[in-house]
Amino acid sequence: MSILSYPTWQEQQTSWHEFIKGSFGGNWTPPMISPETPTFMSLPYVTEPEELKGADAVIIGAPYVASESPKYAGVDREEWLAAPQRVRQQSVRYQSGYIQEFDLDVFEHIKAVDYGDAEIPPEVLNNQSPENILRAQHAVEEKVGHALDAGAVPVVIGQNSPCGSYAIAKPIAERTSGAVGCVSLDTHWDVQPLDHLTNDPRIAGSASWKHKMYEWHDNMSPRNLVEIGERGLLERKDIVRSYLQQGARFISTWEVRTSLGIEGLVNELDQAYQGTDAVYAHFDMDVMGGAGPAPGDILGEAAEPIALTDYEVIRIAHEIGKRGLNGLSFICIPPGSALVYRVVVYVIMYMLAGLAIRNTAAGQ
User: For site-directed labelling of 20, which of 10, 35, 71, 247 has its Cα 20 to 30 A away?
Assistant: First the structure.
């Protein structure tokens, strides 16, 4: 299996400056987090919790991969780890927050900042002991908590659990007195009772984080779960049937294609909002399989047929924004494709556009 050749930061700068200058006559230097990492969409870079005051959305990177070996799902783990940086790199090819489909400049209505990456301990890369994983999870929780305490929506660009999933759900649940709903896009349910990497019941791992979310938080229930995108032969029937019996709304891509359609799917999102005080949105981007703008093979063993398309994923994000949300996270971003990283940029920006539309309608 081959990975697409991803350009260096210098090559990207040369290409984008030539393209943008030739097309629009512009030139710019984005704020930088590090020498090869610009801020998301050239947003202001902040480093202290007090700088989040007044923000509507906060971008946070969570570069973590759940593998002690050189590969995860058959793909070099360095490719997975690069996702927060590469999403940011691709985002700065866009010089404003103007989305022409809606005639809307997002950043005229939404104040957003980039809060950098969580301080995940580097030793966890080669020593994934439960203690190190919990330290990594806490580093993400801390930044997410700062955003929530400032009244902002944390947007976490991660790659594996718990740092790109449970570490966002936990602080939301802890800060919400009422019920918390969840909209989850994924190829896999991630509801195994035990983390397969550590076999430690304290770890909300890649295949178990959602089970742990419901096990550990009484204000989160499958009856307010909208689970989208799973298909095929991957899951145990007793586990899936248990979630269905508890009231989860499962929307397979088969149902989307054969009967529901994207408009019907959008209407089903309401189940996450019925009787809840907060909603957590989670996008595991392997849900695109090979139906997005790059071949599914770049996902290695995580790829499956009958995937959602990039439009469907982006549209769902937009509709979630229009309904409101308390946090958004990404994992399993297909590595090595510049265009796939741009899909994540679109997911974030079209979600924020939905939030802007919601705020405008509410007179905020």
Answer: 35
